[in-house]
ABC transporter ATP-binding protein (Ruegeria pomeroyi), 297 residues
Amino acid sequence: MTDKALTIETLCKDRGPTRVLSDVSLHVAPGERVALLGHNGAGKSTLIKSILGLTRIDGGSIRIGTAAPGSAQARRETAYLPEAVSFHPALTGREQLRLFARLSGERADVSGLLERVGLADAMDRRIGAYSKGMRQRLGLAQVLLGKPRVALLDEPTSGLDPISRQDLYAIIDELAGQGAAVLIASHALTEVEARTDRIAILRKGVKVADDTLANLSALAGLPIRLRVRARENADALAARLGGSRVNGASVELLCDPADKMTALRSIAAMGEAVVDVDMTPPRLEDLYRHYAKETLQ
């Protein structure tokens, strides 16, 4: 029995003369939440379709537990939430989820699932009257049917308001807590920065990063940003610290992570000349730009 819920080894996919995925390897363990990042066209959707068995691969291998993509076992053990989720507009939310439960052979608490995703007051309304965010919630309820080994979520917060986004990630945490391996393809960097265990980045079909946020930050060696607020003379403080004056009253300087404590001690030595200090480590957006070598889209 494998200890990985999802195992991808040296995956290759060609589209005509173009290689859209090149030797991509990615392992996701039970209970792990992995963010899959990449600019438009980086290969995220092709990778997800390959895991689902919807796209034939040209090299390498994929396993959901021990099952091949597209097999009956893999379909039973995989849940998928697409970005553009679509349901029959004439059915109610309750009717649609009951249909999915029957098709999957699950004896599910349909009403409880709809309440869990925030559709308690809309479960008997026709889906044609749902907003995009409500359809996204219904798609999440479908993901929760049974206990999937692997959950693939493609831009899961699309169309959701801020509170609904928090609720969704709470449910993702529950999925992971139940042992599901969760792969989240997203452009919402601030969200996945705080709510995932590992970050994988694709660039032009090649995996260019795959590690925890802390390790990616250490490997990148990006500088820490310090902003020091001066009591009176920001120009003089900038000259002493070797930084640049910003917004008239503060000084900004960059330092290597290894030099952080030295820089803080130098600032503390300024005594009453310093009113406050803010320290900002590299954000996921900075790391994404570094590894993907692309502007965000």
The CA atoms of residues 281 and 290 lie 14 Å apart. The chain has eleven helices and 13 strands.
